[in-house]
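Sample 1 of the test manifest.
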Amino acid sequence: MRLSLVNREKLFAASLLTPCFLFVVLFAFYPIIYSCYLSMHKIILSLPYLGQPFVGFENYKELLNDTHAYSSLINTLIFVFTTTFFEILFGLVIALVINKHFRGRGVVRAAILVPWAIPTVVSSQMWRFMFNDKYGLVNYLLYGADTSAYTAWLASPEMAFAAIIAADVWKTSSFAGLLILAGLQLIPDDLYEAAKIDGASAWQQFTKITLPLIKPAILIALLFRTMDAFRVFDLVFVMTQGGPADATNVLQFYGYKKIFAEGMMGYGSTISVMVFFVTLIISLVYIKVIGTRLFQERG
Amino acid sequence: MKKISFYITVFIIVFLSLLPFLWFVDTSFKTSLEVTSIPPVIIPSGTIDSYRSAITEYNLFHFVQNSVIVAGATTLLTIVLSIFAGYSLARLRIKYKGLIMGSLLVVSMFPQISIAGPVWKILQGLGWLNSYQGLIIPYVTLTLPLGVWIMASFFRELPEELEDAAKIDGCGHYQTLFKIMVPLAAPGVFTAAILVFIYAWNEFFFALLIMTQQKFQTLPVGIALFQGQYTLPWGEIAAASTVATVPLVVLVFLFQKRIVRGLSAGAVK
């Protein structure tokens, strides 16, 4: 039997997509469903002889009464909103600066990319060292050699939280900046020329031309940063271990602790499922706002 | 005046971007006394003791080797699969393209914790915890969306006449892809490879779960778990961090244009 040209192309396309499809289905989509299954069972890794009894929604009932889970959700939300706010703000400044033509722009752009490229674990250790209570650079820059005034930043709940926010903003503002820059570069120069002829001030040009036109880019940067901030883990693991007094306990760290440190595979999976749905809802809202534009044009 | 304030802004941005890391590099060349001194020593004595001890006492090269193996294999596999998938999504007639691209985007976005337990269980069932393939597989899965989006965006920009000409000359589908399209999309392949490599080199969460034995741990896990007997060995941590980061800084300075292009290909067009 000979296949028609169209069918042959379809077969070829399918054969090219299959390996990618297999990876994503087996190691991303199937695990999500599997998480739902696990969350309805009682599974304790250290006590394998108990088996995996089905407990229905017991774990979810427990989750509703778990104050640690609740505070980790609140912490995560505060972290997400604060970091994305500052990252978009600084990102905008960075983008406006490197969009200009000046000598050495390439080097500057590379320098700005350095925080983005550094492994998060390295930047976490680095900031932990900077915030050290006895010989950290932060204390020295604030108080000089007056060691009696030195603060143990990571030992205070509020300051530790502020410290992980600062470390995250430092690391990822440049990424937000690059996404916004891509939007800036799409604005044709004649728009500004025309505005100048009409006598528009620099501020008017910014609010009437630049901002409206980079709105899509800002929204996309927001989406990416929000989703990425939701999975904050490395910073917390290295800098604070969720402490002091649960102040920096975030969802991904709490889930990790329950499933892997305490071995509560069943209960921990309810956290996994909850995190999945929370992020799914948020990303659907974003995609609705950004519009189907992204997918239609690219599809 | 305007020019001066502009250059001051540029300087502040660059200074803030580089200062913390340079401070850590600086620390790696200090003696243990200099590391903890107040006021801080700015110009270190240039000793390489921290590096020596990181290598001999903390097995630094061992972690480097594991990272090279895992990140290298991930990059290779992801790129090959991304070329396949990216090409078919960009240039061939398939149904539900938007849906496929969208679900890939979802994969790249959801928090790893939502799949961590099951992935661990699957790998345990296969006996692949503490093995290279056990980490490479999740990494390939998580980097495929990025790779496919980048490749698709590069393939989409190649003129269609090329494929038509190849077909008229009697090239089959596979020949057209490998002999004509892939060489033309080489910049895209390269861009995707850099980004995937950086991702795999830096990833910590899955590495921590899957590699519980030191024998297989990658650099980020090693650096996160560095422990001295009584105090934190900051000199050694700084030395290992420098070793983990310098290759990436070199990549960034050599290929910043490609990296910027790649990062925005997945997002804004």
